[in-house]
Write a structure and sequence with these properties.
The protein is of the alpha+beta class. Among the domains are: about 80 residues, Alpha-Beta Plaits (2-Layer Sandwich); about 290 residues, no CATH class. The protein is about 60% helix and about 10% strand. It is built from 24 helices and 15 strands. A 4-stranded antiparallel β-sheet has the order 3-11-2-12, with helices on one face. Strands 7-8-6-9 form a 4-stranded antiparallel β-sheet, with helices on one face. Strands 5-14-15 form a 3-stranded mixed β-sheet. The longest helix has about 35 residues. The two termini are about 25 Å apart. The C terminus is likely disordered.
Length: about 650
C-alpha cells in the first residue's frame, strides 16, 4: 500500500568477472543498472568512460533470428492463444537447444530458403510483367528482332490511349509515317509506326505529347506468340520450383520453436551485453551504479558474494538523483495496480493511489452495469480465463472484483438481465423485490443522489489524502493552503447548500455561510506563493474561481447513473423483442433464445467496456489530480525477458516452477 523504498548501490567488479556477474544479476532480476551518462560517479570523475563497443555480432544474430521467425510465420502461423502467449519448454529442452548447433543450422536453412523464395518470386513477377507487355502484340507475325534491323526506315512500337488515337494517327500521317494497329488491351492500342530517319525527331515529339508508351522488346527474339509460349512454360517451371521451396519452408516451421528458444536466449544475452558495455569502467574494474528495492538488498549481496573479485555497497543518492518508482500492495489490492501503472507511476515522494481508489473503482464499475445477471456471467467467463491463463492476471482479477460488485449493485436495484425475471420467471419476482433497495427506473432520484454523494465523497477523500500526505512530509504550508482550505471551503458550501434545501436548520447554513469566507480569503492570498504579489493575487483569484470546477467534477459522477440506467433500458428492450418473437408461430421459440442471448451478450459487452472506461476516467480526471502529480520513472531492473518461450522446471520440492 505504498511506494517501495529504493536503495542506491554501487557494485564494483574486476572486468574478468563482470560478464558472469551481469548474468547472475539478470537471473536474479533485482537491480536496475545505470549507464555512464546517468551514473553520478561518471559525472564526478569524467575519466571514467564506458567501453562503448556495441555487441554487433549479437545484434545481427538477434535480428536474423527475428526475421527468420517472422518469415516462417508467413507460411505457417503459430497456434498460440491470448491466454497462453508463451510456449512452455522444459529447462532441459531449453539448455539442449541453446547449447547445441541445430537451431543455428535451421536458421541458415531458413535464410537460404528465404533468399531462394525471394529470387523465384522476383523472377515470376518479371515473367508476369513480360507476358502482360506481350499480350497486345500476339497478332504480330514478324519476329521482334527484325523490328530492330531495318536499314532505311525507323520502326517504333508502343501503346497509344484509345481516346487519343484519332488525333495521333492524323499527326503521324501528316509526317508521312505509316501506322499499323496490332492489338488492343485495356483501353490502349498497340501500334507499329514506320517513318523515315529524317522524320524521326518530329514523330517522337508528337508521340511524347500523346503520352506514347514505347515497347522495345529488348533481349527478345522470335515471334510474339512463341515468346508468350516460352514465358508461360517458364512460369509453369517457376511455380513448380516455388511449390518445392514452399514445401521446404513449411517443413521448417516444425523447427520454429528452436529458433524462438535461441532468440530469447540471445536477446537476453544482448540486453546483458548492452548494459555491460554502457557502465563506467577503469582499466581493470567496472563500476555498476544503480538501484535496488531496499528489501531486496540482502539478496543482491548474496548474488554479488558469489564472485570473489566483486563487492557491493549501499551509497547515498546524489542531489540530482531521481530514484525509480515501484509500488507494492496487498494481494486483494494488487489487481488495481493495472490502473495505476496505466496512468503512470507516482513521483518518488508521492503516495501510491492504488489502495485509495480500489474500492471506488470496483463500486463504480458495478454501478455502471447494475445488473446481477450480467455480473454472474462475467464471473463465470473470467473465472475460466483465470484458470487457463498463463502470465499476468491482474486485469482479470480486477474485472472479477468489479463483477462481484456488479452482482451486488444489480440485486439491490432489481436488475437481472434487465427485467428478465418479471418477463420470463415471474415466480421469482418476490425474491427479487426482497433483495431490492430501490428500482432506479421507478425512483431515479435516488440513483441521482447516490451518484452525486459518491462523487462528492471521493473528491473530498482525495483532498484529504493530499492534506495528510503533506503533513507527513512536514510541508505544513502546502497542507494548509493547498488542501485544508479546500476541505473547509467545500464542506462549508455543501452544508450551506443542504441548509438552503431544507435538509439542515437555517442556523447551520448561516454559520457555515460565514465560515466559508475564511478559506476563501486564504485561497485568494496564499494559494500561489511564488512571484510578485500582483501575480500571486491574480492566480489566487483564479484559484478561487476554480471552485466551480469542483462542482463540475462532482457532476461528472452522474455518468454512473447514466450508464447504469442505459444498461437496464437496453436489457429491457432485448426482453421485449424476445417476448414479441416468442409469439411468432413455429419459428418463434427458435429465434427467441437467439435474440435473448445475442442481445444481452451485446449489451453486456458494450456496457462492460463503457463501465471500465468511464470508471477509469473518473479516477484519472476527477480523483487523482486532487493529490497526485505523477511523473515517476518505472523501476526497470536488468532481468530475463522472454518473448516466445516460458521455461519450466522442477524445484527442490518437485513443484512446477516457471521463469
Amino acid at each position: 500500500m505504498a511506494i517501495t523504498p529504493m536503495a542506491k548501490v554501487l557494485i564494483v567488479g574486476h572486468r574478468s568477472q563482470v560478464p558472469e556477474l551481469m548474468e547472475a544479476l539478470q537471473q536474479a532480476g533485482v537491480a536496475e543498472i545505470m549507464d555512464a551518462q546517468a551514473a553520478s560517479l561518471a559525472r564526478q570523475w569524467p575519466d571514467l568512460l564506458a567501453e562503448g563497443k556495441r555487441p554487433r555480432d549479437l545484434e545481427e544474430r538477434v535480428s536474423r533470428l527475428e526475421q527468420a521467425i517472422a518469415f516462417l510465420n508467413e507460411y505457417g502461423p503459430e497456434k498460440t492463444s491470448f491466454l497462453r502467449p508463451l510456449r512452455e519448454v522444459t529447462a532441459e529442452r531449453y539448455a539442449d537447444v541453446v547449447g547445441g548447433r541445430q537451431a543455428l543450422d535451421v536458421l541458415e536453412q531458413v535464410e537460404q530458403a528465404r533468399r531462394e523464395m525471394e529470387r523465384l518470386s522476383n523472377e515470376r513477377e518479371a515473367v508476369l510483367a513480360t507476358l502482360e507487355t506481350l499480350g497486345p502484340w500476339q497478332s504480330l507475325e514478324t519476329p521482334v528482332e527484325q523490328l530492330r534491323q531495318l536499314d532505311s526506315v525507323e520502326c517504333l512500337a508502343g501503346l497509344v490511349a484509345e481516346r487519343q488515337w484519332e488525333s495521333v494517327r492524323a499527326d503521324l500521317e501528316s509526317q508521312q509515317a505509316v501506322v499499323q494497329v496490332v492489338g488492343l488491351a485495356g483501353g490502349m492500342r498497340a501500334v507499329l509506326i514506320v517513318c523515315l530517319p529524317e522524320s524521326l525527331a518530329e514523330v517522337q515529339k508528337r508521340l511524347r505529347a500523346a503520352d506514347f508508351k514505347a515497347v522495345g522488346f529488348e533481349g527478345m527474339n522470335g515471334t510474339v506468340r512463341q515468346l508468350i509460349a516460352d514465358h508461360r512454360d517458364r512460369l509453369v517451371g517457376l511455380d513448380a520450383q516455388i511449390a518445392q521451396v514452399r514445401s521446404r519452408i513449411q517443413a521448417l516451421t516444425a523447427e520454429r520453436l528452436s529458433l524462438q528458444i535461441v532468440y530469447d536466449h540471445y536477446n537476453n544475452l544482448l540486453r546483458r551485453e548492452q548494459t555491460r558495455v554502457s557502465v563506467p569502467t577503469t582499466e581493470h574494474t567496472a563500476l555498476l551504479e544503480g538501484w535496488v528495492k531496499r528489501r531486496e538488498y540482502p539478496r543482491l549481496e548474496r548474488v554479488v558474494a558469489q564472485f570473489d573479485a566483486c563487492w557491493v555497497s549501499e551509497i547515498p543518492p546524489a542531489e540530482d538523483d531521481v530514484p525509480p518508482v515501484d509500488i507494492e500492495n496487498r494481494k486483494t489490492i494488487k489487481p488495481f495496480e493495472v490502473v495505476t501503472r496505466l496512468y503512470g507511476m507516482p513521483g518518488p515522494t508521492e503516495v501510491d493511489p492504488t489502495a485509495f481508489f480500489a474500492p471506488f473503482f470496483a463500486l463504480f464499475f458495478g454501478l455502471c452495469l447494475t445488473d446481477a445477471g450480467y455480473g454472474l456471467v462475467l464471473i463465470a467467463i473470467l473465472g475460466l480465463v483465470v484458470m487457463k491463463m498463463r502470465g499476468d492476471r491482474k486485469l482479470i482479477w480486477l474485472l472479477i472484483i468489479g463483477s462481484i460488485l456488479t452482482v451486488v449493485a444489480g440485486a439491490l436495484m432489481g436488475g437481472w438481465f434487465g427485467d428478465g425475471i418479471q418477463q420470463f420467471i415471474p415466480g421469482l419476482d418476490r425474491a427479487r423485490v426482497a433483495l431490492m433497495w430501490f428500482d432506479p427506473l421507478v425512483d431515479p432520484m435516488k440513483f441521482f443522489i447516490l451518484a452525486l454523494a459518491l462523487g462528492y465523497f471521493q473528491i473530498i477523500f482525495g483532498v484529504t489524502i493530499g492534506f495528510v500526505h503533506a503533513l507527513r512530509q512536514r510541508r505544513y504550508v502546502d497542507a494548509v493552503f493547498d488542501h485544508l482550505t479546500w476541505l473547509v471551503m467545500l464542506n462549508s458550501i455543501a452544508l450551506f447548500g443542504a441548509s438552503k434545501a431544507g435538509a439542515l436548520p437555517p442556523v447551520v447554513g448561516s454559520i457555515f455561510g460565514w465560515i466559508v469566507l475564511v478559506p476563501a480569503v486564504l485561497i485568494f492570498a496564499g494559494s500561489h506563493r511564488e512571484g510578485g504579489w500582483g501575480g500571486r493575487l491574480g492566480m489566487g483569484a483564479y484559484s478561487l474561481f476554480s471552485t466551480i470546477f469542483f462542482l463540475g467534477d462532482v457532476l461528472s459522477y452522474l455518468r454512473l447513473m447514466a450508464l447504469g440506467m442505459a444498461t437496464a433500458g437496453l436489457g429491457m428492450a432485448v426482453n421485449v423483442m424476445t417476448k414479441v418473437t416468442m409469439d411468432i408461430p413455429w419459428i418463434g421459440w427458435v429465434l427467441a433464445p437467439l435474440i435473448f442471448v445475442g442481445g444481452h451478450a451485446f449489451n453486456l459487452l458494450i456496457n462492460a467496456l463503457g463501465a471500465f472506461v468511464h470508471t477509469l476516467r473518473l479516477q484519472y480526471v476527477e480523483f487523482f489530480p486532487k493529490f497526485l502529480q505523477g511523473g515517476g520513472r518505472d523501476f526497470r531492473p536488468l532481468q530475463m525477458a522472454n518473448k516466445y518461450v516460458l521455461v519450466t522446471g522442477d524445484d527442490e520440492s518437485g513443484r512446477s516452477q516457471h521463469r
